[in-house]
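Example record

The entry below shows one chain as it appears in the dataset: sequence first, then structure tokens.
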Amino acid sequence: MGNWLVVEEKVIRVMEPDGRILEYEAPISAQQVLSNFSGHALSDSLTGFHRLPADAKLLSGQLYYLVPLPTPSKKSKKKVVSKQEVQELLQVSAQDMVSQIQSKQSTNQIQVSGVEDDDNCRGSNSKPISKSF
């Protein structure tokens, strides 16, 4: 009755996170698609994320999903400090505290001695107080 011509579709579709559809000619690998989208992965399922390996050959006629990867949080980074480093930090802190206390004490002594001198000077006509033993 009639002749049918079947044409195999050699188009691969990739849906971006915003819903736009990109079309690529087959054959193409996941890595070739991802080279334009840093921080993303390809999945063949939207309901259950199945990350495709970079060397996976994408099949024509299929729809793939471009999924953004989570960015690592800066808050989660922790620094490991050795016991010796902690002791050195504490020793430096203790030395700083001691030197601050000593400088405050010397400042207070200067102020106190200045106050004592003022108390002993009662006026221009006053004489020093003498004590007899």
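Notes for this example: The helical segments are 30-34, 83-120. The first helix runs from residue 30 to 34.
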